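Changelog excerpt

This revision adds worked examples to the README so contributors can see how folded entries look when concatenated. The first example is reproduced verbatim below.
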Amino acid sequence: MSYPRRGEIYLVRLPGHPADPIARPALVVSMDVRNRLAHDVIVVPLSTTLRPAPTHVELSVGEGGLKQASMAKYKQSHNSG
């Protein structure tokens, strides 16, 4: 059985943005053993909107198959459940 691996990029629908009509690229950051055993994975959303900020990390063209320069954006979300 296949599972997401750390460092791979997937198109995902983010739970905090249910009205967003399109899937967004996200980088898998959770450990492979967790990805295999848990029912979810931890990802960092990616964006082509480049803004220098302490919570943004620039990614180069070619990293993970990116076709244009992108930013990884850290955003912590809290679940109330």
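The second example, added in the same revision:
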Amino acid sequence: MTNIPGNQPPQGYPPQPYPPQPYPPVIYPPQKKGPSALKIVLIVVGIFVGLALIGVGLLSYGVYKVAKTSNMTVNTQPVSASDMGVALYPGAEQKANVRMTIAGENMLTATFLSSDSKDQVVAFYKSSLGPSAQAQTIFNETQFMLDKGAGESVTVKISSATGLQGGKTQIVIVHATPAATPSK
């Protein structure tokens, strides 16, 4: 049978036994595995850690810049009505004041105590600040805010409590003005 025409292997191929044998099975390369869940979790965690480090760096830089440009002093030297931008309550005893420059703003905060009732002090500052002052009362504190324009503002907080400073009325005044820009 090997001499039957058309039954000869092509030139260069070894002769096939009769009957012809099937070709050997094809071996395919192993399938590529997709990313495992562990790899995905590690990548996500790595991204969050990287973003957190960038955030901490930016926050640290911001705090550094604020600290570098700020100045704060605490003392008990008396302040005047012109320092505070509003009339001082008559007979109130000054406890302390804080002067600071931060974020392009000068702030002077002074704390006073009065033996008068909270209602008397509120009435005084309501008339002193005028009708353009915004008033708000939350729990036992009344606050007046007055924007004087050109970056200047005055905030007056009045509070009293039976245990606070021997039952006296506390007055906290914050006067904010724009800081002078340094000349170049």
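Reviewer comment on example two: The longest strand covers residues 93-102. The chain is about 25% helix and 30% strand.
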